[in-house]
Amino acid sequence: MGKYVIAGNWKMNKTPAEATELISAIKPLVADATCDVIVGVPFVDLQAALDATKGTKIGVAAQNCYWEKSGAFTGEIAADMLRVMGVGYVILGHSERRTFFGDTDATVAKRVRGALDAGLTVILCVGEYLEQRELGITGEVVAMQTKIALNGVSEEELARVIIAYEPVWAIGTGKTATAEQANEVCALIRNVLTDLYNETAAKAVTIQYGGSMNAANAAELLAMSDVDGGLIGGASLKPNDFATIVAAAK
Q: Are 90 and 123 in contact (CB under 8 A)?
């Protein structure tokens, strides 16, 4: 399966000074990590995070980017701007971007294209709403999101895509998919990748689970055959909890 990757999604939290403090607390706790570790911070914290992680194996992710290189797009950040800073990763298609800020499957695909063209590694978020799960169409929804986002992405570029399965009903609600539910959808995503590319390419892709993974449930979730890591929300703001999750990714 894909390499284990634990990524923190800080969302809209922490000033630059607070980001430096939090990363300083995390660094010694994950120094011996056997998985890749990433912190996804707000735009204003990126330079502080890059400075604080210098000389470590911790990667830094932005939480979004735009698909155009420049232009009259007030409030947006181009992928090239991130790359020039030294940012290596970007989170795209998070349900909060889709729900509150108008991202669609089509615009997520454009953002993925722009990020890959700029040389970034993409953490692509897919996942269903509660009503979609209750209707029994989780598979169709997640497959469609994955296929649209990866339209035009070559097998070579796929090596720079991490997919995070985030059931929207489990984000920030305290609800978590069972380990079996999470694994079932992660396996479905891998099957979609096999159809789009081939089995070898699909097996190499890291597929994370991202619905309220925490220190208490991480080990069970990460023990599943098709769960290759986590995109961590609230627990990524707590150094000890985040370190516990990283330690579980073996």
A: yes
